[in-house]
Amino acid sequence: MAVNPPQDPLARERARKRKAEKIRRRRIVLAVGVLGLIVLIVALAVGLSGDSDGTTSTTNPSGDGETTTTSLEAATFTADLTGANSVPPVGTDSTGTLTMDYDPTTLALTFSLSLAGLSKPSNAAIYEGAAGSSGTVVYVLFAGPTETVTQFDGELANGTVEAGKLTGSLAGMTVGDLIALIKTGNAYVSVGNVSHPVDAIRGPIN
To answer: Is the pTM above the cut of 0.70?
Structure first.
């Protein structure tokens, strides 16, 4: 019977080192895979948490039937109201300012409307429409009663936009949809008075 020759000690050592190297490489590959999985889980968790802190996305149908997406982050919108912006233009020195602030923490869109020198203001609202056109009301800011002073100076209205009071194309929709409309540049605020029930002064919201 043949007898196997004794193995070279150096050969055995090389074989042992090769085996140890293979094991070490497998462990590195496994560690990298586990690390990648952890990173993916953390990224998903951070992404999903965006909705809980008010940073969400909402869609709003635009006039051409397409969908506009907006991110609900902290934002401020303003409008400068003048008679020159009215449709048709009104010759008046009266002015107004609308300021709207969105807080993603409280999910609230607040507003303040102030006037300077407008006679007997009776109503104010946000409209959907482009400059130079007559739009449709989407949110009423002030519904009266009519102020009796001939030169009203100061804050006419303030508050928080309530989704349930949205009208027109935004009826049944959300505050996020109103913000989306404003961001398209297709929203304006109009104040009416005894002489001009609509558009005594007016300005685009941006």
So the answer is: no
